[in-house]
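Quick one: structure tokens for this chain, please?
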Amino acid sequence: MQLMAKGNFFNIKNFLFLFIAYLCLLTLDSYFYDDHGIRDRIIKSKERFASSNKIINGLIFGGSNAMWGISAEQLSIDTDQDFYNFSLPSNGFNYLNYFEYINSVLSTEQKINIDYIIWSTIHPLDLPPYDDFTRDISGKLNSIKHGLNLSLGQHLKNTFLSNPHKFLHDQNTGDFLEESFRCPASDPLLIDENLQDHISGYKHKLQIQKEFEVEFNAYNDFIKSNFPNAKVFFVIPAVFNEISIDKETLDKLNLLIQNAGFQLFLSPSISQMEYICDASHHPSILGREIRTKELSMLLSNKS
């Protein structure tokens, strides 16, 4: 009996030790979470629109494809319209985060001045889930009840073996700065042949899932209630290799777009690795120039 009692005591001690250790790990995981500069990007966006009298009449919405792939500065020069790039990694991780971000930056008057919105998203080429409501806009879990942002091993790797990568943006345009482009698919100094093989072999397919329709309708409602004067271009971004598209799926997408009053643009594919940065839908700087020029021509023809 004494041995059993002693064994139970040690089991309780071990459980308490592991429980306290896990709570400490959760705290450290939350405290040392690296947002890669996203919070700073949001602050700079707010400062830019609060302090500048320059009227912006074009916005770029989207995820990382639009961070890497669209230049508001180049669009502004090409079209004589003043654009700002609001793109964020993973579209702010969910549409509620993203809408809150835009509403926190733009005033009602600034929204009324918007004539054009380019909404570029990879989601019609992906499988769900598209929106993670357990995370904030930087990707950090919004409660410790959801567990760790990164495993202990990942934290150690990032601390001792990796160089932190900050997403740096131009405050005036919102564009991804050139120094933020690390391109192992095309930069001779960083070439990763395994990554190149993965990108070359990856096939994208147009697919309209129910989860995407929910997200699309949420964006449609948000845009119509906040940007009454905006003409909206819904853009399927450029990717490496041709996108597989069947007629039924394309008809379904066209119906969504038409009912919303948007205009659809299917970006031409990217066929050369020199125009790719680190993923099939992340262009290099050269790729961004080409992709932005295509959008400039679209806007010029539709104006």
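The two ends are 87 Å apart (CA to CA).
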